[in-house]
Amino acid sequence: MRKLVSVGLLVLCGVIWPSTVLATSQWARKYKAECSLCHQGFPRLNSFGEEFMRNGYQVPGDMDGAITGKTKIGERLSLDNVTDILGLRLNITPVSAHVSSRTVVYGNPNWLQFFVAGAITKNISIFIENEITTSGAHFSWYKFGFHNLFGTKALNVTIGNLSPLDHSSFSNRLRIIPPEQNEFFGIKPSRGKGEASVNASSARPGAMLYGDLGKVTYYAGLSSGVVTPTSNDTLNTWLGVRYNIDVKPIDGTNFSVTYYEGTDVKNGGKDSQVDNNFRWVIPAFNLRAGQLDLQAAARVGHEDNYLLVGNNVKSDGFLGYGFTVSYMLNNRWQPAVLYDNIVSGNIVGTGKEWLTGALTYFPVDNIRFGGFYKRDIEDNGKNDKVYCNIRVMF
């Protein structure tokens, strides 16, 4: 009975929301444009939205950061309306059920996000995102951008809290079917027990240089590896390249390769400091063909001392791969599938394999209702989960 109630609530999530709310966000307000100009089912960016982001939240091919939507205060000062740079996002899981244990959770408030983003002036941008949960608040993303340096889109710099995969074909951000994500991106060196353990895609303090060279986008960066200061004095570095295809009907399709290396530590700064040097290679592919959107990637890793010990040092590698694919049936309905596989190894421990089916309903452009069934293939359904999620931006 409890399972039937949960499934019934998932169905209701897709049909009871009113369809008269107006779709708004700060850039929709500023440019008086629909969300679909930059998104293919928010928060997922389309190819135009990606170019808009890389160009410092300025129209691709333009440098309108000091003009569009600005009020001229003086000869050297033009300001945005506050509503054109402020945004809000809400995320709630009305109901979730663990299938095998038959436990059900209702009304989980995941987070509220406040963000300030946009072009401060010509070719200078900012993106700050503060996330509030029941356990506290923290900055998820906080970065300044300096764009089109020396008048060329081949030179751009971002500084702050950023991801090394921001410009790759599969960043694991602004995902196709949030809150689901490919978990192989989340593997950390030293099994996450080091003082500078980071995964592949989340935000970290650093600096990145990137640019567009015709059909090729390059990116390179460095980071201390963690959000808070540590005694780790070895920088993490990365280098990547993406090739962009502009041939119809698959224009917007691209593929990339990212190389990342760094050092995790224990007892940093002491005589007993232990290092674990690690490296990853991440090939990725994004196919866009009309309403079809497919992202696929693999992550091949190796660690020299994954146990972070001074004696009996052990090295090993791991492999993770997966994909997410969706098709927009129309501007309201989006079925999708996500597959995730982390191959068993000493670094990761036991292997993991998941298959998630999702159906999302958009009553308007800035609200999404998602129903999900996450299948635990590795353990024959032991950790299967079914849930409904609601996201709103305004």
CATH topology: Porin
Rough outline: globular
Give the low-confidence spans: 1-24
Number of domains: 1
Tell me the CATH superfamily. Answer: Porin
Q: How does the major sheet shape up?
A: 16 strands, antiparallel, barrel
- SSE arrangement, N to C: HHHEEEEEEEEEEEEEEEEEE
How many β-strands, per DSSP? 18
Average pLDDT, all residues: 88
Strand content: over 45%
Q: How would you describe this structure to a colleague?
A:
The chain is mainly β and 394 residues long. The protein has helices spanning 2-13, 26-31, 47-54, and strands at residues 70-74, 77-80, 86-98, 103-121, 124-133, 136-146, 156-162, 204-213, 216-223, 236-244, 254-266, 274-289, 292-303, 316-327, 333-342, 352-364, 367-376, 385-393. The chain has one domain (2-393): Beta Barrel (Porin), CATH 2.40.160.10. It is 7% helix and 48% strand. A 16-stranded antiparallel barrel has the order 3-4-5-6-7-8-9-10-11-12-13-14-15-16-17-18. A two-stranded antiparallel sheet has the order 1-2. It is globular and about 65 Å long.
Helices and strands, with pairings:
Layout: H1 2-13, H2 26-31, H3 47-54, E1 70-74, E2 77-80, E3 86-98, E4 103-121, E5 124-133, E6 136-146, E7 156-162, E8 204-213, E9 216-223, E10 236-244, E11 254-266, E12 274-289, E13 292-303, E14 316-327, E15 333-342, E16 352-364, E17 367-376, E18 385-393
Antiparallel strand pairs: 1-2, 3-4, 3-18, 4-5, 5-6, 6-7, 7-8, 8-9, 9-10, 10-11, 11-12, 12-13, 13-14, 14-15, 15-16, 16-17, 17-18
In short:
With 394 residues, the protein is mainly beta.
Keywords:
single chain, 394 residues, mainly beta, Porin, 16-stranded antiparallel β-barrel, two-stranded antiparallel sheet, 3 helices, 18 strands, disordered N terminus
